[in-house]
Specification:
Elements: H1 18-32, H2 37-51, H3 60-69, E1 73-75, E2 84-86, H4 88-103, E3 115-120, E4 124-131, H5 143-154, E5 168-175, E6 178-185, H6 198-215, E7 220-226, E8 230-233, H7 250-262, E9 268-275, E10 281-284, E11 287-290, H8 297-312, E12 317-321, H9 326-339, E13 342-345, H10 351-363
Parallel strand pairs: 6-7, 6-9, 9-12, 12-13
Antiparallel strand pairs: 1-2, 3-5, 4-5, 7-8, 10-11
Helix pairs in contact: 1-2, 4-6, 6-10, 7-8, 8-9
């Protein structure tokens, strides 16, 4: 008779140092506090009281000292009276942690090579060979195959020699360069109803920026946040991003994104937009026009017009809607149809995987 034998579960021992273990907790907390190191450390002390994170051999003060010694945090002012802040190394670590959390489950050999269907004097060698042509670079020549051709074509009776007709070159693929603008909704609804939606959105932005800087240095990534208005932020500012008491000015965000992409020289351009709310605001003649209730036809019409303009400019918009309201979904469907883009209706879980997949797919397109 078949059955199951149960045994005591013995978890694997964490091989990391105490500092590395505590650094993971600190990194998560400082992301939630929008880069406020003091508040993150206060939360760690509260967790220590409840769960005994530290002990006599490694105290909370030891951890803070090591954070400073290893360059993750620094004092705001030279005299040490300004309070601790993240250093550039600390900011990079927060982005790297977000990258590991969101994209760390990708399998080797999966999508992400960013190849196109076009061959020529590109970067990536293929298995294909072809005869040498005038203008090919010497480093493209496959000398093993070329020597073999010379032996077959001329033999060795009169001594070995090679001609241009014997040469074979390795075909290469072009790698596409992409300019991406990431739009992040920082309206008040991103923290309403007891849900923290800005933290996962922020993690995706940090992970995407770290991915591009590490693997695709030729790409460009610009970040636009939009609330009552829209403005650009730097990658280094992402850990400090927080929600404001704003409406959702999607129109201003799209206009700013389009202005950025007009200045880019790459052939591939795209917009990613992470939002959980309806467009509820725009600016005309220097004044705000707001409507917090329902989908205002005038505001919606402006958004759809911009979506059509992006379509004419061959700039696809991929929208990640962190909401499931049917009337909001209908607006996004209309918006996506106007742009001929893509839309994903996703919860807070899986947002990173969805964004990464579409980022890779859009890079394959040549406009």
């Amino acid at each position: 008779m078949l059955g199951y034998k149960f045994a005591e579960y013995i978890p694997e021992k964490d091989q990391r140092s105490k500092f590395e273990q505590m650094l993971d907790i600190f990194t998560e907390l400082v992301t939630h506090t929008s880069g406020d190191v003091d508040e993150a450390l206060d939360w760690m002390q509260q967790l220590d009281k409840e769960h005994n994170l530290f002990n006599e051999d490694y105290t909370f003060d030891d951890f803070v000292d090591e954070l400073k010694a290893k360059g993750f945090i620094r004092e705001e002012s030279e005299n040490g009276k300004g309070g601790p802040t993240l250093s550039s190394k600390g900011e990079q670590h927060v982005r790297k942690k977000a990258l590991d959390q969101i994209f760390g489950n990708l399998k080797k050999g999966g999508p992400g090579q960013h190849r196109t269907k076009f061959t020529g004097g590109g970067d990536e060698p293929t298995e294909e060979r072809r005869p040498f042509q005038f203008g090919d670079k010497s480093e493209q020549i496959d000398f093993a195959e070329s020597f073999r051709n010379a032996q077959i074509n001329h033999g060795l009776d009169s001594g070995f020699f090679i001609t241009e007709n014997d040469l074979e070159v390795v075909e290469r693929e072009y790698k596409a360069m992409t300019s991406t603008v990431l739009m992040i909704d920082i309206s008040h609804s991103m923290i309403l109803y007891g849900e923290d939606r800005i933290t996962p959105a922020k993690k995706v932005a940090m992970a995407l920026s770290e991915l591009i800087m590490r693997k695709y240095p030729k790409d460009t990534l610009d970040i636009v946040v939009f609330g009552d208005d829209a403005w650009e932020i730097q990658i280094k500012d992402l850990p400090y991003l927080s929600v404001g008491p704003f409406h959702t000015n999607t129109v201003a965000g799209l206009e700013r994104a389009m202005d950025i992409l007009r200045r880019k020289k790459s052939a591939n351009k795209q917009i990613f937009m992470i939002t959980d709310g309806k467009p509820s605001c725009l600016i005309e003649n220097g004044e705000y026009y707001k409507n917090s209730f329902g989908l205002d036809p005038y505001i919606v019409g402006k958004c759809l017009n911009l979506a059509r303009q992006c379509r004419k400019l061959k700039v696809p918009i991929t929208t990640f809607m962190i909401a499931t309201d049917p009337y909001l979904q209908q607006f996004i469907e209309d918006f996506t149809e106007a742009n001929n883009g893509r839309a994903f209706f996703t919860g807070l879980q899986g947002l990173g995987d969805t964004m990464f997949s579409d980022f890779e797919n859009n890079r394959r397109r040549k406009f």
